[in-house]
Structure formats: structure tokens, C-alpha cells
Amino acid sequence: MTDDLLIRGATILDPVSPLRRADIRINGGLVTEIDAGLRPDSEAVIDAWDRVAMPGLVNAHTHSGQSLDRGTALNLPLDLWMVWSIYAGIEHSPEDSYTTAASGALEMLTTGCTTVIDQVFLPAEDFFSHSAAVRAAYEDVGMRAYVAPMLQDRDFLKSLELESLASWSKPALSPDYEPQRLIGHLRDFVDGFEGADRRLRPMLGPTAPQRCSDEFMVLVTDLARERDLRVHTHLLETKTQRLACARRWARPLLEHLSQAGLLSSRTSFAHGVWLAPDEHRALKAAGAVVVHNPISNMRLGSGVLPLQYLLASGVPVAIGTDGAASNDTQDICEALKSASMLNTLYGGFRTWAQPEDVWRACLLGGAQAVGARIGRIEVGAAADVVLVRADRHVLAPRGHLVASLVNGGIKGSIDTVVVAGRLVVEDGTPVFPGARDLEARSRAYMERSASSYESRRRVYDNYQGLIAPAIDEAAIDAMEPVRWWQG
To answer: CA 251, 254, 256, 258 torsion: positive or negative?
Structure first.
């Protein structure tokens, strides 16, 4: 498949540059020329006179193992949702890991997203078979993926820091692991990317500080420095987590992470709903990225991130869908629309973030989170380009066009998607040759998952009596983080 490509006459929508009509030449996976009237001597030429060319969107936080779990979860707070969706879920084979990763990638590509941070759960007992399957899925489908294995060495129940756990007689929900064993897995995982497709890169993805020992987090930080890797982790998604972390450590969590070396420009933090203003200032100073996941935060009742205050304060922000078990879709445009509208619930209307602000955060914040030259259509940038049919969207002025794309959605308007200079969607249809077989495998997986309702209920009933009182104690007020900022 050629990556010597010319896109002719497109209306170019870039997050930094003004709207313009020009040709885009692509070669070697990069944008090499942008100008009007370029010579049509590339191997492949696409006429795009009635198309908008925009950078591929960036989904800066999801879990591919949940891509086919749409509709399986009850409306529950995160800690109870974890029992239902994760610890009571069906077992995954490596073939399932391939199926879910490939299915999620196809959904993202056909909704305009070309890059993902996949904090994927890979079981320690069969780590390498699962990691190879996920890598193969992204390579086959053609998406740019930053794969961050989600590992922890502490049991989920211990992370809740409950006094009542001392008298709890039921078994742990997840095993404890030796930190050195997990770091050995991660070293081999990173080595596995040697010679891999240029669209695939490894990251480190410790699941969350409260579910990791201090030793493991320091080892992760050391490995990130040694191998020049990015780190992606959850951070203070819920108020129960904030209370649990306060019980575990005698100092603020962000101060603790800074001491461990994790607070840096290498790190992106999913959620961060329950961070205080001074902690956000520390994130800004460090250059760390907060990944806003508005739909899952609403779905799980986790709280409202004070988005417009973070943007106004210069805190780097990216956007994520989160996993489909807490979102029910992998369409990043739905997350953009939710983010742009959720912030209208607070503050004066003059402070509200507009669709263009959120779209820009998705592109530029996402690029910052992965440390790559994506999210732009400019010479030297990665050739990740989405062509959108203009018949459903107003081309000017710029703000109206972006609002039309974000609020109106682009799912039905996608014509062509290019990742690293290669066509992966043509005439709105993925070019992935295994799409039909994947559809059958996905259907079988979903039917198996749907049949697990009663077994999920039994596991859930065994543990909800321990966890629910902790949620009641936290007495979550979803708007409290916003009031911290408003003073």
C-alpha cells in the first residue's frame, strides 16, 4: 500500500492555522508539502474539492478490552462498577484481546479518530500472548496506538483503605504481585516493539497510584526514564479515591507522586476530577496532561471536572472516551460534544469553553500526552488526515465549522482516513480485509458477555455490602470540584 499520496483542493482545518484551501502532499508517513496547485505526480491522488481535511482526532484514554461491553454495566459508582464490569466480567482469551482491540480501533477510525492511548488490561499470567494479540490488532487495522499495559500489584479491595476490610472473610478480587515480576513483564513488552509498525508505540500504564505499591511506582518511573517512555495512569477519579489516598499517605497524593518522580511532562493522568486548584498548578508547572473523560464521569457519577478553569489556567488537557463499559461507545466526537456542553452547568456564560476549545484540546493536548507530532496538518507532521464530506457542515466561519463537526458529529460524514500516510478508510468503509470475520467474532463475544448477567450479579452481591458504605461515607457531590475553583 502506497504512502505517496496527494490530496487536492481540500479545505484545511488545522487547530492553529487559519482555514485555507490547498493541496496536501504525503510521503514517508509525513506531510511533506502544503500549497495550492501542487504537481499531481504522486502515486495516488485524491480529489477533495468538496471535503474538509482535518487532523485525525486523538482518544487519549480508553481500555480496548471493554470495546464490546456496550450496555453490559449498570449505572453504578465507580467502585461498585469495578466489581460488576471488571472483576465479575467474563474471562478473556488472547483471541478476545485481538477481537476487542480491533473492533474498538475500527469504530474509532470510522468516527475520525486516528490515535489512541490504550490502557489495556493484560493479565500477568498470560501477559505476552495477550500483548502480542493487541499489538497485532492495531497493526492489522492500521490505527496509531500507544499501548499502555494496565498493571497493579495491590488488590483492588486494599486500595479502598477500609477499616472493615480487616474482618472481611471473602477472597480478594485481584491478586497481589511482586513488583519486580511486573517490571520484568514491562521490559519484555517494550522490547517487543522493536521493529514494529511505526504507528505503534509502547507506554507504561500502572492502573492507579492507590492500586500500586510505592515500590512498583518508583520502578515504573525508573523504567520510563531509562527507556524514554511515557506513563499513563488514572488519578483521583472519585471522591472515595481521594479519601482513600488521604488515609494511605500522610501528604497530598500529587506531592507523593512528585517525590516518586511520576509528576513530569512524560505523564498523562486520566480523570483528575478531585484534584484541588493548587494540584492543578503543579500539573501545569510539570507539563503533565489531564485527560478529561466527560461521558464516563457522568455515567459513573464521579464528579464534574472544572474544564474551562483548567483551560483558562493553561493546564494541558486532552480528551478521552474511556472504555465502552463506562461509556458504551468509542466515538470521540461524543466525548467532545459532552465536554463542550457539560461545562455550561457552572460559571458565567462568558467563561464557557466552546466546541473549538475542546476540539483543540483533543488534538493538541492529545499530541502532548503521547509526545508526538500529531494533531496538526503542517509540513513535517505525521500524515494522519481525515477527509469529511462538507454537505452536512458549514465551511465558514471557522468556529461554526468546528461547532458543526463537534456538536453535529462527523460519523456519517467520514469519507477518507489516512494514518501515517496509508489509507485505512475509503468511501467511509475500513479497508481492513478481515472486517467480516471480525464482525462474526465480535458478535459471538457480545453474546457470551450478555449471558454472564447472573454470574455478575452473584459476584456483585457478595461485595457490595463492603463497598457501598464507603461510597455513602464519601457523600459525593458531583459539583464540589467546580466550587473549589470558583471559590
So the answer is: negative
